Every structure is written in structure tokens, then in C-alpha cells.
């Protein structure tokens, strides 16, 4: 496909389907056009046999689809250690949910998770996946909210939040630990998350217990005063404790020695 042809394509569209009203409803909700041929858009939302997926026309990329049932019990050990709090249930706010894989893992171990995603196409993919998802064991829960992270932090009705989690996409890095195809499609939709340090500062002012920031293993920290750090093979989790909380202050030594 030559450059002129690519420029003529719609950025994102919804593919129509015979005898299926879902594409029209989805397009109306997202303010996107409905097309009869996938090739007329750079990216197309398509209702496949196993759920809503995002396809890239003319490129050898596997369609992007969220399936929480495929997230195994293995993996995420460092994330769970970084987010750990003693008292449950605990409310956790994921400010940069993306495909919500980490949000699901956290909900599965008992957090009451509020997952915030500002990009409407990504939000639609996750929303569709939640309708097909297995039941979470109590007290875990996952609520998806379509809003900007800063607006969420400023919301008067947010209520108390024990843990805030950040996994922002930064210039030249991309969201951590995603397969390359997912990262490529996500970057096309979202661009880069600017002002990460500012977002961290806002999060620290709202979290009752701790803020957890996911970073590429060798990337600079968003703030130099992380209290804890849990490292995996490709990523690490910087933890900023609210030491004004007696529970967090007393758990610091246990976290370090765990």
C-alpha cells in the first residue's frame, strides 16, 4: 500500500456486519464511521467470533483482543508484592489501565479495582472483554471508567483510595512488558503520556497507603524518593509509601525483607 493510499484511509472505523446491530451501536457511542470493508480504514474495530477486536489493515499484525480468561495464575508476582496492603478489602485505582491486564490480576487477588482508561477504542475493547470475563473471586472486583487520569483524581466523588497504580506510556519507551504488536497499536491510538512526574505527584496526594509505578527495568524513576522497588526481568515497580499512614509505615520493613 503506497503512501497516498494510506493517507486516504480513515484513521479508525467500525466494520459493519450482516444481521448484527452491535457495530452500529458501537460506532454511534464512539463517534466513529461504519464501513463495509476493513481496507478503508487504518484501524478497524470488528466483532469476531470470540469478541471485539482491533485489526490493522494491510499489515501483518495479529488482531488485538482482550481476553481475561486467558490470563493465567502465573506471572505478576512483583506487581502483587508491590501493591500489597495488609488490610482487605482495599480499593485500588489504576490510572492508566490500557488493556487492563494488571487491573485484572489485582482484582483477582482481592482488590476492589477502579480501572481508568481515557482512550475510547481501548476502553471499548476492555468493556467487551469484561462482558465475557470469568467471575472474580470475592472480594475482588473490577469497575471500568472512561475518563482521564487527572480528571479521575480530581473527582469529588472518588472516595478514599488505598493504592494507586500507574503504568504510563512515555516517549521512546512504550507501556511496559507488552508484546510488540499490542504496543504498536496502542501507541497509534494513545500517543505518549506526558507529565508522568506531575501525575505521580497528584497520585501521591490522593493515595492513602501507597502509589505503585511500573517502569521499564532500566528507565529513570519518575521521582527519586521511592521507598521500595521490586524488579522483574524486564520491568520494575517503584513504590511510594504514604508514611503518614501507620499501617504503611509499619509494613515497610516487612516489604523489604519479603
From TrEMBL:
Short name of any one Pfam family annotated for the protein: SAM_MT
A single Gene Ontology CC term: cytoplasm
Molecular functions (GO terms): rRNA (guanine-N2-)-methyltransferase activity
Keyword list, A-Z: Cytoplasm, Methyltransferase, rRNA processing, S-adenosyl-L-methionine, Transferase
Binding site for S-adenosyl-L-methionine: 117-118, 167
Reaction(s) the record says it catalyses: guanosine(1516) in 16S rRNA + S-adenosyl-L-methionine = N(2)-methylguanosine(1516) in 16S rRNA + S-adenosyl-L-homocysteine + H(+)
Enzyme class, broadest EC rank: transferase
Keyword field contains Chaperone: no
Keyword Cytoplasm listed: yes
Stored SUPFAM superfamilies: S-adenosyl-L-methionine-dependent methyltransferases
EC number: 2.1.1.242
Stated role: Specifically methylates the guanosine in position 1516 of 16S rRNA.
Family the UniProt entry places it in: Belongs to the methyltransferase superfamily. RsmJ family.
Family matches, as PANTHER family: RIBOSOMAL RNA SMALL SUBUNIT METHYLTRANSFERASE J
This protein's name: Ribosomal RNA small subunit methyltransferase J
Amino acid at each position: 500500500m503506497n503512501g497516498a493510499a494510506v493517507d486516504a484511509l480513515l484513521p479508525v472505523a467500525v466494520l459493519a456486519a450482516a444481521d448484527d446491530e452491535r457495530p452500529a451501536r458501537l460506532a454511534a457511542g464512539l463517534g466513529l464511521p461504519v464501513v463495509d470493508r476493513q481496507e478503508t480504514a487504518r484501524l478497524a474495530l470488528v466483532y469476531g467470533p470470540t469478541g471485539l477486536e482491533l485489526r490493522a489493515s494491510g499489515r501483518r499484525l495479529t488482531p488485538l483482543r482482550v481476553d481475561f480468561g486467558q490470563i493465567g495464575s502465573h506471572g505478576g508476582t512483583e506487581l502483587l508484592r508491590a501493591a500489597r496492603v495488609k488490610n482487605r478489602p482495599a480499593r485500588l485505582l489504576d490510572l492508566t489501565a490500557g488493556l487492563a491486564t494488571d487491573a485484572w490480576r489485582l482484582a483477582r487477588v482481592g482488590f476492589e479495582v477502579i480501572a481508568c482508561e481515557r482512550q475510547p477504542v481501548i476502553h471499548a475493547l476492555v468493556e467487551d472483554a469484561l462482558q465475557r470475563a470469568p467471575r472474580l473471586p470475592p472480594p475482588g472486583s473490577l469497575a471500568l471508567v472512561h475518563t482521564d487520569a487527572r480528571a479521575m483524581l480530581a473527582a469529588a466523588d472518588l472516595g478514599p483510595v488505598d493504592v494507586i497504580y500507574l503504568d504510563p506510556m512515555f516517549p521512546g519507551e512504550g507501556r511496559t512488558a507488552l508484546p510488540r504488536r499490542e504496543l504498536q497499536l496502542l501507541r497509534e491510538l494513545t500517543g505518549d503520556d506526558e507529565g508522568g512526574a506531575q501525575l505521580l505527584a497528584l497520585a501521591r496526594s490522593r493515595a492513602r497507603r501507597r502509589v505503585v509505578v511500573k517502569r521499564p527495568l532500566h528507565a529513570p524513576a519518575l521521582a527519586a524518593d521511592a521507598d521500595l522497588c521490586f524488579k522483574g526481568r524486564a520491568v520494575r515497580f517503584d513504590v511510594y509509601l504514604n508514611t503518614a499512614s501507620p499501617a504503611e509505615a509499619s509494613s515497610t520493613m516487612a516489604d523489604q525483607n519479603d
